[in-house]
Amino acid sequence: MAITKEYLDSIRFDIAKQKYYNAGKVDAKLDELKQEVMTLIEENEKLRRAAADVKSAKDEIGDAVINAQAQAKATVEQAEAQAAQLLSKAKADADAMTAEAKEKADKILTDAKFQASLLLEQAKGSAEKLAAPAQTGAYGFSLRQLEAIDKINKQLDELNVTHATQIFRLKQAMMKMATEK
């Protein structure tokens, strides 16, 4: 049975003759008890409402945390996907630039070799022209032959320097492109 105001109001004591109960004192005590119980009932109701409010707030906070976690997970997944896409694009761009640089380097090297072969052929032709009229004996060289040999050596040196310079520039360009990536 629940303790309610009605229950407490219903409690009555019959006064018997020659008993030493004082009805006024008993009623006063009951009224005191009733007042204390009513205070407890009111406090209990306040606590129940507060507990319900706390439960409601807890549920709202839990929902907010779950939503925040879901949004954070979605944001991380989106960022990872974007990062992977950017990385893939950067790799493709780097591969394309490397291929282009290699193609240019191969073309420059091919051109340099071609120019070197042309210069070598010209030098040989010049040497043969100069050497034919100025032949002396099997043991000595004429002044004209020495000049032709000197001229050929200079042309070969220039060819080697040109070729080496072009190769060096190619290597520098390839290193620069590799470091920029």
Strand proportion, as a percent range, falls in under 5%
As a whole number of angstroms, the C-alpha radius of gyration is 55 Å
Oligomerization state: single chain
- How many individual helices? 3
Beta strand count: 0
Short description:
This protein is an all-alpha fold. 84% of the residues lie in helices and 0% in strands.
Task: Walk me through the structure.
- α2 runs antiparallel to α3.
- The radius of gyration is 55 Å and the shape is rod-shaped.
- The model has no long low-confidence stretch (mean pLDDT 82).
- It has 3 helices and no strands.
- It has 181 residues and is mainly α.
Core attributes:
single chain, 181 residues, mainly alpha, 3 helices, 84% helix, rod-shaped
Describe the SSE topology.
Blueprint: H1 5-9, H2 23-131, H3 143-180
